[in-house]
Amino acid sequence: MSLQRVSFVEAKGSLVRDCPGTKNHICCGYKTIDLIEGCILSCSYCILKYYINADGIKVHGDTPYILSQIEEVINAEKGHILRFGTGELSDSLALDRKYRLNRPLVEFFGEKKRALLELKSKWAGFDHLAPYLNPYTVISFSLAPQRSIDREERRTSPLYKRLKAAKKAQDLGCFVGLHLDPIIIYDGFEKDYEYLIEDIGRLLDLKKVIWISLGLLRFPPKLLDHFIENKRKSLLYGEFIQGEDGKCRYIKGERIKVYRMLYNQLKSKDDELFVYLCMERSDVWKAVTGMTLNESEALIGLFDKRIKTLYGGTI
Ligand code: SF4
Questions:
Q1: How confident is the model over 167-202, as pLDDT tens digits?
Q2: Could you tell me the residue ranges of all domains in the chain?
Q3: Closest ligand 1 atom number to CA of residue 90
Q4: Statement: residue 2 has pLDDT above 60
Q5: Residue to probe by mutation, ligand 1, list 46, 153, 184, 218, most atoms within 8 Å of CB
Q6: Distance between start and end Cα atoms, the chain
Q7: 57, 89, 120, 122: which to mutate for ligand 1, most atoms within 8 A of CB?
Q8: Which CATH class for the 6-310 domain?
């Protein structure tokens, strides 16, 4: 599928980090594991084009080194239930059937029972991991209407396959996460998202959806130039501003309108769904959810509560 060169590189330095978050925005306190840098799926809006300069894909295959760093971070944490993910600098599943990097992590989290590993993907294949899965791995899919997938995520699995894979993960005893991110505004997107949320409600067991994130399209200004040069009109629909963190976003009023619409539709399916906004300001949080979150610590506390509710005393 890919013409990109994949090379195994020596694991050195810190590969387990705090998610960089974004200045003056509410952050969820996620921990990232840099197992792979680069991605074969080449989504049109992918910010890795901006963050990773090297050609090709780098794999840090020294699992014991990475596991020792994860263990250190878990042992040092006294207050919160940590969430780790490998989907920050790559897609968690796209290369896994070939390189089998996730299995030791899945087994490690299953034995430790103190934190969660999230495998976040747009690739629906994880059969090779099925025998090792346990409740401490959350299988997550980024979801978008098929029309948007056809335009922007051409190498990824179609929506119906992602939803089918999510259901399969639930049937195997895992909680699943859903990420409506990036939400791209285009003519008629409202109706497409309404159908998408209908599909989620119809096909998945909502009691086994641990979290749903909402994140509207955002990108560094350099990518804006790239979109303009490459005539990516579908990514430039709407009005953008540069936020305090330097990233381009849709204007605030538009963001609130879209988040509110999706938040309310999701809550109408099940009021207990845990829906959060990814990298948004506290005033947007308030306008959309009615909740006052003045700092990231408040959101991290909500995650702790959610996980304790679902896992009881088993974490
Ligand atoms: S799947 Fe994620 S990491 Fe891979 S190209 Fe798409 S946006 Fe980038």
A1: 999 999 999 999 999 999 999 999 999 999 999 999
A2: 6-310
A3: 3
A4: no
A5: 46
A6: 39
A7: 122
A8: alpha beta
